């Protein structure tokens, strides 16, 4: 093969790879758009076309997994595999088995996520699920109800989730405590902010010694910061959290929020006209 032929072959390979790359990106963007539009059947077809072009393209595998979850097809979601099993794919597996009431399998994926990705920002949520499973013990009935309510929350079926949670919070057990926090999250997602705050206040009165108090206070601070834009109230809640629960994970998150608040405040003062 002469030099001219080698150059032509090289250029042909580059063109081919470029076409594959851009075609993959265009189809993936289309799949993401279809997912946002809740056109799940078409999204699945498009994600699959991307995976057919590049079987190890993790974003498409994650998108396909997430689409099946939203559709309620947990069996198909379980089958999604990828050579690169990322932290979010592992987190997806954890949730899928939790929603399917296969709590032992869910726990195994939590352990795997912690082992492979100890710095993942998804690990805190995964460990919380593990704690819920452990604390529920043999109370599989209420654990199954909680998993169903959590699934309704993730898929936007808020009314169904609220119905289940309202029955759970009448009890006095660890699942009832987690149910209160989930109920507050659902009201926040529905933009019923007063109800969200009232739910956390009710939790605080009913369970003043709960180990979930730091999480409840942090969530309350976020509501005032993000939903009500009440920076001063949010700062007070975060500062109280740090003071009362200095060793909690939420105190670390609260410090981060305070740093962001102070940074934004300083920027405003610097940019203000003199």
Structure description:
- With 274 residues, the protein is an all-alpha fold.
- Helix content is 79%, strand content 0%.
- The protein contains 14 helices and no strands.
- Helix 1 (3-36) runs antiparallel to helix 2 (40-53) and helix 5 packs antiparallel against helix 6.
- It is globular and about 55 Å long.
- The N and C termini lie far apart (73 Å).
- 32% of the residues are buried.
Short description:
The chain has helices at 3-36, 40-53, 58-71, 74-78, 87-99, 103-116, 123-136, 140-154, 158-168, 174-189, 193-206, 213-227, 231-244, 249-271. The chain is an all-alpha fold and 274 residues long.
Q: How helical, in percent, are the residues?
A: over 70%
SS element count, helices: 14
- Mean pLDDT equals 89
* Low-pLDDT windows of residues: 7-23
The string of secondary-structure elements, in order, is HHHHHHHHHHHHHH
Radius of gyration: 23 Å
Beta-strand fraction estimate: under 5%
Q: Which SSEs are present, and which pair or pack?
A:
Layout: H1 3-36, H2 40-53, H3 58-71, H4 74-78, H5 87-99, H6 103-116, H7 123-136, H8 140-154, H9 158-168, H10 174-189, H11 193-206, H12 213-227, H13 231-244, H14 249-271
